[in-house]
Amino acid sequence: MSIRVVVADDQELVRGGFSMILDAQPDIAVVAEAGDGAEAVAAVREHRPDLLLLDIRMPRMDGIAAARVVCEETDTKVLMLTTFDQDDYVYDALHAGASGFLLKDVRRDDLVQAVRVVAGGESLLAPSVTRRLIDDMVRRRARPPAPAAALDMLTARERETLELLGRGLSNAEIAATMVVSEHTVKTHVSNVLTKLGLRDRVQAVITAYETGLIQRA
Fold this sequence. Notes:
One of its GO terms (molecular function) is DNA binding. Keywords: DNA-binding, Phosphoprotein, Transcription, Transcription regulation. This is Response regulator receiver protein. Pfam families: GerE, Response_reg. By secondary structure, the protein is α/β, with parallel strands linked by helices. It folds into two domains: 134 residues, Response regulator (Rossmann fold, 3-Layer(aba) Sandwich); 68 residues, Winged helix-like DNA-binding domain superfamily/Winged helix DNA-binding domain (Arc Repressor Mutant, subunit A), CATH 1.10.10. The protein is 53% helix and 14% strand. It contains ten helices and six strands, in the order E-H-E-H-E-H-E-H-E-H-E-H-H-H-H-H. The protein has a six-stranded parallel β-sheet with strand order 2-1-3-4-5-6, sandwiched between helices. The longest helix is centred in the C-terminal third of the chain and has 15 residues.
């Protein structure tokens, strides 16, 4: 079954290029395109796609506002794209409910993989922005710092899973690193979130840094 995608970007050539790349994949189908945030919201309401590939800077309604509406109204996953490598955009996009964030200079194969990862229910951030995002969110103190002792309630495997989450690995990459199945990884991730009282994978990444499990450079 194909991953149904809406592509939204105010630049026609960019929008068309992304659509062509994605539509060429056997497991992805672009069901609509949009030139601004308002059109993107309308397209999602009409087609109910699995994923919305959404530019941040657009006329009428920007990508952040569009992402907020889409995430509040539907189950469609949102993957943000931008040329602006800035922390505030990443923070605002994730706060609006986006599951992923990539820069527009992403390689073709990485774009396709990002769509598959986010559509599959995982979070994804461009490696170039992950570290600054963590530093920014820790600085803002969106949640109280977690004491390192909190990690004592995790098993050795769960602790390893948290560390790998903090390094930005997907479930498939964690499974390969730990030499276990993806189902086992999903169980470990769920246990980590539950035991530490975390809402999502982004908070898990922050906790990995706040507890010193991963050292910030």
